[in-house]
Write a structure and sequence with these properties.
The chain folds into three domains: about 5-80, Uridine Diphospho-n-acetylenolpyruvylglucosamine Reductase, domain 2; about 80-195, Uridine Diphospho-n-acetylenolpyruvylglucosamine Reductase, domain 3; about 200-435, Vanillyl-alcohol Oxidase, Chain A, domain 3 (3-Layer(aba) Sandwich). It is globular and about 70 Å long. Strands 12, 13, 14, 15, 16, 17, 18 and 19 form an eight-stranded antiparallel beta sheet that branches. The protein has a five-stranded antiparallel beta sheet with strand order 5-6-10-8-9. A four-stranded mixed beta sheet has the order 1-2-4-3, covered by helices on one side. Strand 14 and strand 15 form a beta hairpin. The chain has 14 helices and 19 strands. Helix 7 packs across helix 10 and helix 10 runs antiparallel to helix 12 (about 400-410). With about 475 residues, the protein is α+β, with helices and mostly antiparallel strands. It binds flavin-adenine dinucleotide. InterPro entries: BBE, FAD-bd_PCMH, FAD-bd_PCMH-like_sf, FAD-bd_PCMH_sub2, FAD-linked_Oxidoreductase, Oxid_FAD_bind_N.
Length: about 475
């Protein structure tokens, strides 16, 4: 194919191109193709189809399991990075070589529009949206998959189609939450949201690490004010983060998030919450800042990285698991979990965190058959994450055991997991059940796969 850049293991730049975000893993694709047009992608996929090859797209490359680099032929999407914002009909066409930070900047600069995406600017719009895509604006506006109006998709045979509510409806359903098994998305058409006029970003911290008992109590207070019934305003985004302390029996803990709207309204939620923590004998410190500029609000939770992603992201070396719960967890399980983190977390040879995000709001009000995201009624989504110093290439042997133990202490019988925090240690029956919830959902996705990619060109270790 004229003009198409192809990198193989014999090339000097192969190591850089095949390097995963997660250094714990070592993917080894045969070809890395860097197209600059949909026609080149179509030709590449057609070639794989005719010759029994497998294809994976790499959008932002931030898969926890390096699955963007998992096939024989990797199609690197970075060269397809147009963004067209249409303010008249409040839509945006986003090619999937774009990362979330670039999308946020382009949308805000063209008419103060926004999308409900995750906080890391380097995550790709491809993988993120295919599996759902949650961010602090999601209780207000839904998941990324919920604001897709249509998509341009390269099918397994290389044909290019438009999938929407009226064309290739099954495919349209599957690519919004069901992952990358069904086709290669070149462009999303999103319904954009108005960016909030004011974002109040807040952190509630504690001067010193908390004892396991105090942290359990603080967590249970937070869980109670989160609902699920009654649930807080859609304007609230809230999360809890635990991280290691030095002394056994203690953990660091903070609450964080955004309120979309005036500071007085944020205070009306934050002040009673603070009061509840104080009544329980804790001494929380509230730090809340109102931002008139939407992008400033995004930067707060972007590790102070530039949103326009000018440099490559710093890789990590990690393992993570997730848990989705539909109801509040009982106090004894939370106590068990926090005790585990306070004890084993001090001994673990990893840097770790556990983050819990409140779902609900707009996400929960959409009908369960809106798209393939299986957990409309999710209450909380937990992420349990352990990493080794970023520059190191070996992961400590106890790292996976530690994270598995965190989940077992929190929920011995997990009912749901979030596929954007993809966990390569799950077997086929586990990931299907945890990500897609029940036999009916799994069967629907299997049938769509059979219709669109019988030869399994878009083969994925955890794909249909
Ligand atoms: C630092 C960090 C922060 C994160 N924060 C959040 C967060 O706030 N909220 C949240 O929901 N998730 C978050 N995630 C998880 C993130 O959403 C997923 O890892 C996501 O799948 C990454 O997408 P990507 O395009 O960057 O990855 P990639 O590795 O490029 O792709 C992921 C998967 O999708 C496939 N794929 C990618 N693009 C396409 C395409 N165009 N067509 C077909 N298949 C494609 C790939 O083949 C691969 O299987 C975070 C991840 C990291 C590493």
């Amino acid at each position: 194919m004229p003009g198409l850049q192809i990198t193989t293991p014999a090339d000097l730049n192969y190591t850089t191109k095949a390097a995963p975000f997660n250094l714990r893993l070592s993917p080894h694709p045969s070809f890395i193709v860097s197209p600059i047009s949909v026609a080149q992608i179509s030709e590449t996929v057609r070639c794989a189809y005719m010759n029994g090859g497998t294809v994976s797209a790499k959008s932002g490359g931030h898969s926890y399991a390096a699955y963007g680099l998992s096939a024989d032929i990797v199609i690197e999407m970075a060269g397809l990075n147009n963004i067209t914002v249409d303010n008249a009909d409040q839509t945006a066409l986003v090619q999937t070589g774009n990362r979330l930070g670039n999308v946020a900047e382009a949308l805000y600069k063209h008419g103060k529009r926004a999308l409900p995406h995750g906080s890391c600017p380097y995550v790709g719009s491809g993988g993120h949206t295919l599996y759902g895509g949650f961010g602090y604006y999601s209780r207000f506006g839904g998941l990324m998959a919920d604001v897709v109006i249509s998509a341009e998709v390269v099918l397994a045979d290389g044909n290019v189609v438009n999938a929407s509510a009226t064309s290739h409806k099954d495919l349209f359903y599957a690519i919004r939450g069901g992952g990358p098994s069904f086709g290669l998305v070149t462009t999303w058409k999103f319904r954009t949201l108005e960016a909030a006029n004011v974002t109040v970003s807040y952190f509630i911290t504690f001067k010193r690490p908390l004892s396991a008992e105090a942290a359990t109590n603080a967590y249970l207070i937070w869980q109670r004010v989160c609902g699920p019934f009654p649930e807080p305003s859609d304007n609230l985004a809230t999360a809890v983060v635990f991280s290691p302390a030095d002394e056994e029996g203690t953990v660091h803990m903070r609450f964080q998030g955004n309120w979309y709207g005036p500071k007085e309204d944020a205070d009306a939620w934050l002040n009673p919450f603070m009061h509840n923590l104080q009544v329980a004998g804790l001494t929380p410190i509230l730090n809340a800042t109102a931002h008139d500029d939407w992008l400033d609000g995004l930067r707060v939770f972007a590790d102070n990285k530039p949103l326009d992603t000018p440099m490559p992201d710093t890789p990590d070396n990690f393992f993570a698991k997730s848990l989705i719960t539909m109801d509040a967890s009982p106090a004894w399980l939370i106590r068990n979990w926090v005790n585990y983190m306070a004890k084993e977390g001090v001994r673990s040879d990893t840097d770790w965190f556990a983050q819990v995000d409140l779902y609900g709001g707009k996400i929960g009000r959409l009908s369960h058959d809106t798209n393939a995201f299986a957990y409309r009624d999710a209450f909380l989504v937990y992420q349990l994450y352990a990493s080794k110093a970023k520059e190191s290439s070996s992961f400590p042997s106890d790292g996976i055991t530690f994270v598995n133990g965190m989940l077992a202490a929190l929920e011995p019988n997990p009912a749901g997991a979030y596929p954007n925090y993809i966990d390569p240690t799950l077997g086929i029956s586990e990931w299907q059940r945890l990500y897609y919830r029940n036999e009916t959902n799994i069967k629907i996705l299997q049938e769509i796969k059979a219709d669109y990619d019988e030869r399994d060109v878009f083969k994925n270790p955890q794909g249909f």
